[in-house]
Specification:
Layout lengths: L3 H5 L3 E5 L4 H5 L2 H10 L4 E6 L1 H9 L5 E4 L17 H8 L3 E4 L7 H9 L3 E4 L9 H6 L22 H13 L6 E5 L11 H10 L5 E6 L16 E3 L3 H8 L4 E5 L2 H8 L4 E4 L4
Parallel strand pairs: 1-2, 1-4, 2-3, 4-5, 6-7, 6-9, 7-8, 9-10
Helix pairs in contact: 8-10
Length: 275
């Protein structure tokens, strides 16, 4: 393990993050803090590719890698062993922050035996408190000043992406104010009834222009939404983020897309059903 003075000046930092979209969004304050406190550091983010791309576009990481690639299986099961190339990859970093499952501590021990820098390993889910504050605690072992609480996830897209979002809304025939409505989530038990979303969409006209957002999880019943209603169906995440960033409001269940809308700064109403 590197001495404290070296970890404080870490020039290359590796962040390992699994989980779903909502989990990733809650990690943004950690990336924001690293960018602000160590502006000269080179950050490499290993996460699901479509999520990591959001961070890269927003300037929160220079390099991104897909954690679903076969090479990263050993990070979850270190007993399988590490390829020489992977060991060289890890040794190229001054610090490693792992937010991967590691109840036994075996993954952390393996990382510490390989890397030349400091390893900070945190459980993916906190035992208490807010998840973002839990992830921010990774800064302390690196000698980085803590981020002011409470932490807030923020995703600032560049002007070109925002302009693309505005053009997509115009192509859909929508003008401000637009209310994005995402009636699904990763679990049906979290969802407000679709009939309630449909009734609300009718009531808000003509004050608001509804834009329906559906994904793979809603594929079986998305046809119940009128074909005449403007809708983004299974839209690539970067494109969806650009469109959401230009909406004036958002309504949805407890889902990753809801976390995304809030991080983009869109006034968000999140509905939490008992789960």
């Amino acid at each position: 393990m590197a001495p404290a003075s070296q970890s404080r000046a870490a020039a290359r930092i590796l962040i390992l993050r699994g989980g779903a979209l909502g989990d990733f969004i809650l990690t943004l304050p950690l990336l924001q803090a690293l960018r602000a406190r160590r502006p000269q550091a080179e950050l490499t983010l290993v996460a699901r590719a479509r999520y990591a791309a959001l961070a890269q576009v927003a300037g929160l990481a220079q390099n991104i890698l897909d954690i679903e690639a076969a090479r990263f299986r050993a990070y979850y099961a270190p007993a399988q062993g590490w390829a020489s190339a992977e060991k060289d990859f890890l040794r190229s970093f001054d610090a490693v922050i792992s937010l991967l499952p590691d109840a036994s501590g075996a993954a952390r021990a393996a990382l510490e035996s390989i890397t030349r820098g400091q390893v900070v390993s945190l459980a993916p889910l906190p035992r208490a408190g807010h998840a973002s504050d839990h992830y921010l605690s990774a800064l302390r072992p690196l000698g980085i000043k803590p981020w002011p609480a409470p932490a807030r996830s923020r995703l600032d897209l560049p002007p070109a992406r925002q302009a693309a979002g505005r053009r997509r809304l115009l192509a859909l025939g929508l003008r401000a104010p637009v209310l994005a409505i995402h009636p699904g989530s990763g679990s049906a038990s979290k969802n407000w009834p679709l009939s309630s979303f449909l009734a609300l969409a009718q009531k808000i006209r003509p004050c608001w222009q509804p834009l329906w957002v559906t994904g793979e999880a809603e594929r079986e019943w998305a046809h119940l939404i009128s074909d005449r209603a403007p809708r983004l169906a299974e839209t690539p995440l970067l494109e969806l983020a650009a469109v959401l960033s230009q909406c004036q409001g958002y309504l949805g269940n407890d889902s990753g897309i809801t976390h995304l809308a809030a991080a983009l700064g869109v006034p968000t109403l999140a509905l939490f059903e008992p789960t």
